[in-house]
Specification:
11 strands, Arc Repressor Mutant, subunit A, four-stranded antiparallel sheet, disordered N terminus
């Protein structure tokens, strides 16, 4: 008989739901007759979600849950009942393992330790044999890449708290081109992670520009008591719509046209360069990739990453930038090292 499956609804992912089910189970076993409102507050969801969870516990896990109208709360009608951890199927266990390994994407931030603590509490509910299976399965997926740049705990906390409380933020931000840090007051909107590197989207005080700050360059940060109102027209999707590789640019997007010779045409097929792009195949096996972007500096970095296997056809400014940077690289690497 297959293992029972906890209902996967639109509100939250499976792991969050599974953790919530176990939290409800623990509160019911304490015998305090918790109400839906109390359970919702404790779990950080709506009462509607709690009713859905309780129904799933009854129908899919056989939980003997009843509502006591005199005490206005839920309770187990069978003493000693506990949600079976074995309700996790093999695929659920694998999904749990992959999600746990994904914590590596948050290395360098206090969030990584918080997520590990949450996983430890979930895994603590599993029987010993399932925990052993989990440890074996955890070796099947590995998240690799360059190491993350550490972010001070205080910086992280101030950023997160200011975003949640909608309070203006004072920062000192280092700009490499200027060689110094400058004081700024911003409305913090959004944290963005790209290749384990964190960025902050903040609205400048003129209220017309949303800047992208590289978090490790924030030298000092301090919350203020001054609130700000969120611009209802702002959305992350619109902000990055014509950006590139999670970078943001300003101005009208331009048509980017990249050419791949036949021996390198697979690069255009194997990985998307933009969400909205087109790939045109040619008779000789070559390919042309086209998309819109106003973040040409980041497109140039990606082209250079492929080391001469990609040719920029449009726009002329991007082609010139790649040529200039390539010539600079050639000059730097001409002759013996240190010569």
């Amino acid at each position: 008989m297959p293992a029972p499956q906890i209902y996967r609804g639109p509100e939250g992912d499976y792991l969050s739901r599974w953790k919530r089910i176990h939290r409800i189970d623990a509160l019911l076993r304490e015998g305090g007759y918790p109400s839906a409102a109390r359970l919702a507050k404790d779990c950080g969801v709506s009462a509607k979600s709690i009713y859905r969870d309780i129904e799933a516990m009854r129908s899919e896990l056989g939980a003997p849950i009843d509502y006591d109208s005199s005490r206005k709360g839920f309770h187990y009608t069978e003493a000693g009942f506990q949600i079976p951890a074995t309700a996790l199927s093999e695929r659920d266990l694998f999904a749990l393992m992959v999600t746990e390994n994904a914590v590596l994407q948050y290395e360098g931030t206090p969030l990584a330790d918080e997520l590990r603590g949450a996983f430890d509490r979930v895994l603590g509910t599993l029987p010993k044999d399932l925990r052993a299976k989990h440890e074996l399965a955890a070796q099947a997926v590995h998240f690799a890449g360059l190491p993350a740049t550490p972010i001070p705990t205080r910086t992280w906390s101030e950023l997160v708290d200011s975003i949640l409380a909608r309070r203006k933020l004072d920062i000192e931000y280092f700009t490499p081109t200027k060689g110094r840090a400058e004081a700024r007051r911003i409305d913090p909107y959004l944290l963005v992670v790209r290749d384990r590197e964190w960025f902050l989207v903040g609205r400048t005080q003129n209220g017309r520009h949303y800047a992208l700050f590289y978090v490790p360059r924030i030298r000092r940060v301090a919350r203020t008591d001054e609130p700000y109102e969120v611009d209802p027209s702002f959305s992350a999707h619109t902000y990055f719509e014509h950006g590139f590789n999670a970078m943001h640019g300003q101005g009208k997007p331009e048509t980017v046209e990249l050419f791949f010779a036949a021996e390198h045409a697979h690069i255009a097929d194997e990985r998307a360069w933009a969400k909205k792009q087109s790939v045109r195949k040619h008779r000789d096996g070559s390919a042309t990739l086209t998309f819109l972007s106003n973040t040409l500096f980041e497109v140039a970095r990606q082209v250079l990453r492929y080391g001469g296997t990609v040719e920029v056809r449009k726009p002329a400014s991007l082609r010139a930038d790649v040529r200039e940077q390539s010539e600079r690289l050639a000059r730097l690497h001409r002759g013996d090292a240190g010569g």
